[in-house]
Specification:
Blueprint: H1 6-16, H2 18-24, H3 28-32, H4 39-48, H5 51-75, H6 82-99
Helix pairs in contact: 1-5, 5-6
């Protein structure tokens, strides 16, 4: 069921922990830790505290969530999917459009 969903599920969990991740960088333990003072640690901190990163995560989740429904259907062995795929893709397109307030983009 999650063969195609690993990255999506990881991103969903990351987004669910957004507040905790952002607040982690305010703790003294982080600031004084080996990783918190390293160049790599500062890079991670900059990414997590960057609002553009979270905006892009949100966009990605809004697009991928409806497509995951279609992928689960196609990947299922329970029933033949050919009769359902076109309808499900149309539903996914409509859901993606509604996730972006029906704004049509190129």
């Amino acid at each position: 069921m999650t063969r195609f969903a690993t990255t999506y599920l990881t991103l969903t969990c990351l987004y669910a922990m957004k507040t905790s991740l952002m607040s982690m960088f305010n703790y003294e333990e982080w600031k004084t830790s080996k990783f918190g003072t390293s160049q790599e640690g500062r890079k991670v901190q900059n990414v997590v505290l960057d609002s553009r990163f979270w905006k892009n995560v949100t966009i990605c989740l809004k697009v991928v969530a409806p497509l995951m429904v279609v992928l689960r259907l196609v990947d299922s062995d329970a029933k033949p999917t050919m009769g359902f795929i076109y309808e499900e893709m149309d539903c996914a397109k409509e859901m993606i459009k509604s996730n972006f307030n029906n704004i049509k983009k190129m």
